[in-house]
Amino acid sequence: MASGSIDQDNRMNPSPRGPSVLRFAAPQNFYPLAGRLAPWFAVTAAVLTLIGLWLAFFVAPVDATQGNVYRVIFIHVPAAWMSMFIYLVMAFWSAVGLVMNTRLSFVMSQALAPTGAMFCFVALWTGALWGRPTWGAYWVWDARLTSQLLLLFLYFGFIALTRAIEDPRRGDRAGAIIALVGAVNVPVIYFSVKWWNTLHQGASVSLTKAPSMASTMLMGMLVLAFASWAYTLAVTLWRVRPMILERERHTEWVGAVLDREGGRK
Amino acid sequence: MLSTFFAVLRRDLLLAWRGRADVMVTLAFFVIVVCLFPFGVGAEPNLLRAIAPGVLWVAALLACLLSLHRLFAQDYADGTLEQLLLSSEPAVLWVLAKILAFWLTTGLPVVVVAPGLGLLLDLEQGALPVLVLSLALGTPILALLGAVGAALTLGVRGGGMLLALLILPLFVPVLIFGAGAVEAEASGTGALAHLLLLGGGLAGALALAPIACAASLRISTE
Fold first, then answer.
1. Is B100 or A58 the better-scoring residue by pLDDT?
2. CA A224 to CA A116: how far, in whole Å?
3. Which of A146, A156, A181, A184 is the mutation pick for testing B, counting most B CBs within 10 A?
4. Angstrom distance (rounded) from CA B124 to CA B188
5. Which helix (H) or strand (E) holds A63?
6. What was the pLDDT predicted at A264?
7. ipTM for this model
8. Count of domains for chain B
9. Which domain holds residue B145?
10. Is residue B138 within 8 Å of B178, Cβ to Cβ?
């Protein structure tokens, strides 16, 4: 027992004695936890979205130069943040999965990918709608737009690769490698494209200098950013659950869960 | 250790030599794609001169992409790859040898032919050496990055399209600096910065890609 890893320990023993947080690295412990947490995150997301949209449409002042058009920023910026952040989280779980050989990490990174791609697309879409009235074109080949587009392709590549490989073990690892290769390349892509062409306005929010926008605007954006976080967590946890069941379908605990949840109906 | 490297290199080059037609097809593809552009955009010399670096680079990139499946597919099918992975030699070493052989048989011919095609597109003669140099530095990066994708998609259904989706976004920086070098030289601003960045990219890819590629091969064959 002393030499067995925590993961190993959990698999054999339904009530493990390992450190309390690592306990949830075992699918049968994480499955009910995800089910319990997801509704809370969903409610949080809904409440924060309502507050954020109220701030965005009723409290935040009209922009001096852009009029009401600028209000797309409240969706655009959180979506762009999330799309980049989710890719990093995906790469993190991929690395954890490859190094620690934990099955749940791969499931996490694959459950995150569709949400990341969705936010990436939303950022591009709202960006196009914003660009038309302010720059006079739906699309310009500017550094940030272009690297966002390439990020969307990276998401598509990851999703396509993990779905195309039938053997889940191989699919997990192949996806993890491409996620890591992509993560190494994201800064390279970003700076190369930036050097290639830049027209996009400078970053609107920065930690080092005073924000260049009204504090209510910033407030609305941050609230919506937190709403996106909560939404991502809720959706990912919901997506993780059936994936866990599918992968662990040969185990006893999944049989017990299916009996219980099937009997409830 | 180096003897493994040279043995694999020699074997792959010999195999490529025995199947010369495959190599020629890649080269013919490169030439034909470049020659299609004047039909598409018109034979206006100024226009052709302006798009020449981009056209040559995109064609080189596609030629590399379409030949990548040859890198491991045959060895995967006949079991050579498994034997190589089972051997006690470090995988990074023979992977690098295979990538080098691949580049010598697909990248190098493209580098050699490119200046002639540059003349077809009315590219300035002064920019031709930069074109050759940028391709000589850039196509090995394409081969190295592409090898990771080729290893991951081994034996996967729809592998060819998937490979394109996986690695084309990663090729973008190479394309930017490669074509940018030629454009910068043609417009008189000097190509040194672009070429140095390409060289840096090559050094980075040379250090990291074989490791990722070896890991990918292990995953694909287990």
1. B100
2. 16
3. A181
4. 11
5. none
6. 56
7. 0.85
8. 1
9. 2-221
10. yes
